[in-house]
Amino acid sequence: MIDKTIASAADGVSDIFDGSTVMIGGFGEAGSPIELIHALIDHGASGLTVVNNNTGSGHVGLAALIETGNVRKMICSYPRTANSMVFPDLYRSGKIELELVPQGSLAERIRAGGAGIPAFYTQTSVGTVLSEGKEEREFDGKTFVMERGLKADFALVKCRCADRFGNLLFNKTARNFNPIMCTAANITIAQTEQIVELGGIDPEHVVTPGIFVDRVLLLENPAQESKLVAEGITYP
Amino acid sequence: MNPQGWTREQMAQRAALDIPDGSYVNLGIGIPEMVVQFVPEGREFIYQTENGLLGMGPDPQPGHEDPDLINAGKKPVTAIPGAAFFHHADSFVMIRGGHIDICVLGAMQVSASGDLANWSTGASDAIPAVGGAMDLVAGVKTIFVITQHQTKNGEPKIVEHCTCPLTGKGVVDRIFTNLAVIDVTSEGLAVRDLAPGISFDYVQERTPVSLKLDIKK
Prior knowledge:
Helix content of chain A: 10-25%
CATH class of chain B: Alpha Beta
CATH superfamily of chain B: Glutaconate Coenzyme A-transferase
CATH architecture of chain A: 3-Layer(aba) Sandwich
Strand content of chain B: 25-35%
Number of strands of chain A: 13
Order of helices and strands of chain B: HEEEEHEEEHEEEEEHE
Number of helices of chain A: 7
Low-confidence stretches of chain A: none
CATH topology of chain B: Glutaconate Coenzyme A-transferase
Largest interface: A-B, 50 and 40 residues
CATH architecture of chain B: 3-Layer(aba) Sandwich
Shape of chain A: globular
Oligomer: heterodimer
Structural class of chain A: alpha/beta
Number of domains of chain A: 1
Number of domains of chain B: 1
Structural class of chain B: alpha/beta
Number of helices of chain B: 4
Number of strands of chain B: 13
Order of helices and strands of chain A: EHEHEHEHEHEEEEEEHEEH
CATH superfamily of chain A: Glutaconate Coenzyme A-transferase
CATH topology of chain A: Glutaconate Coenzyme A-transferase
Mean pLDDT of chain A: 97
Radius of gyration of chain B: 17 Å
Strand order of the largest sheet of chain A: 1-13-12-9-2-3-4-5
Strand content of chain A: 25-35%
């Protein structure tokens, strides 16, 4: 019998090893798997490369993970937000590496990684500092820059509803990077607010088919990052 | 006498006038966001926000904000009836695949050949952050820029060559400033409209690039 449900966040992240590449879903707090991130902090793997659009806010979730010093490198498009307090200092003091990628190139690199496509060409960033050192090629009279597909050892994602096969539904704009990260990681761990019986999700409505998901953790009332930040909470 | 021309709201309103009915539109942060307030009578625009929503509606009523329903600036928004949610790769298929008709962006600098700089001052201590700006200018069919004609210190923002790091080369189609509407053409910058009380010479004096007066009425 296939049952991808797991008992705890700690179980979900227990095999994340030192030096792993970890994709973490979310756009700001929307879709950010905050409980899985906190479990990863407790687990303590170091030398991580983390892929996320941002760098978190306050001292919880992704920002708290970065603050532990266990993130060697961030791959992201927008590492600066109103409440990002952790990343700027580490970056300015040279304690964390940044690979800055245009948001659409980041999404497509993840999609390509999941689809077994090692590289592709795009017009995005041509003629800018972000294309420096990258291979360029002409197609149909226009210049394109080569971007590499991106894969990960693990993906941590958040969804609204799941079943034991790992089929997932998301919530509004909290979908964002989560579905594509499920496809690009060797092991995908999803936290969900609800688990339904098989068939409880209409097959026509499945957003992420279960083949892309390895572990499903029920977390009925996930924390809201902005509330934790407003309350001045720090993790751990 | 130092006329200011259009206000921020009037600049957004002037830009909205040039968006055809039925357009799929992506709006940048700042003055471009105000375009939603000035949809001309009888037109319908569909707004895309690159974090994954087509059919973005007005701001939510106070107390009805949903942290899972936000725009690219991470502000709470609403979804109109007929809206669609999608993941980031699909969102940038819309943008990079040329499916979005018009993008309205802010600018630090625009060059005479339509180069845009709007993501980084290039300062050495700045945290570089690009978001979707480079994807939008590379993929969207028509790029509108709304910007003050000069910086607060009176420096020009329309320049021969950008000194800030570029977002894209030769990407801007039309510039809406507080003083004028200016098209980027293969023959250079063409003034298409002037704010009330603003003369062509007044605009030219504040623009270190040769302008052509070409208002089609």
